[in-house]
User: What shape does this take?
Amino acid sequence: MPYANIYYVKLKLELLNEKRFIFDLTPEQRYLYIGLLLLAGDTKNKIPDDENFLKNRLNLPNSTSEIRDNLELVIRLFRGIIRKNGYLKFKAFNKLHNQMKDSQRLSNDYPKVAIDKVRLDKVRIEYIKAKGWDKEIKENPSLETEIYKRCSRAAKSLLLACGGDEDKACLAIRNMKEWFGGLKLEWTLETVCKHIVKALRGVCSKCHDTGKFNNKITGYTITCDCKESK
Assistant: This one.
């Protein structure tokens, strides 16, 4: 199953009773093991098998030769870490982090309150900027709470439609602003959800999606068979 939107990895409490971790490793080696687990989340379980990378990324004080020796010991003791094509990987990594399911629902382990608020806020802020309400909010801060409440459900729906990817959701909002703004039509977050496919790819400023797209997309530049691009 592919990894997506990894926000945390699991450090199991059983490590406290694990002889290999507590007694066979030095403090530096224990930190290296935990660092590898964090890097697995950061790299989607493709950690470069390179002591220089580990030294810089984890800010390790040891020399590169010491890091290599420590790494060899950790790998020898913990068979769940393997080498493959120049990378270090955790065998059962799909059980060690939060993960988006095929249905695009959030996993049961997902910290919904903290993480969702961060992502929802990013989408709502993008929507506020796109609608030009940020200036009004500066003059009247109480409007922000009201706007947040009003668009909260739609923002969540948009996030789910984008597979939980807040950057895609923000891109859809910007594209919708360009599209409907060019037609001088009103739009809302619900409109973005309704036209999510078009909103994610953008719409030709000339034919407004009546032409056949050649699927050439570079940022906001889209070319269709009417030969117009924006």
Notes: The CA atoms of residues 172 and 184 lie 17 Å apart.
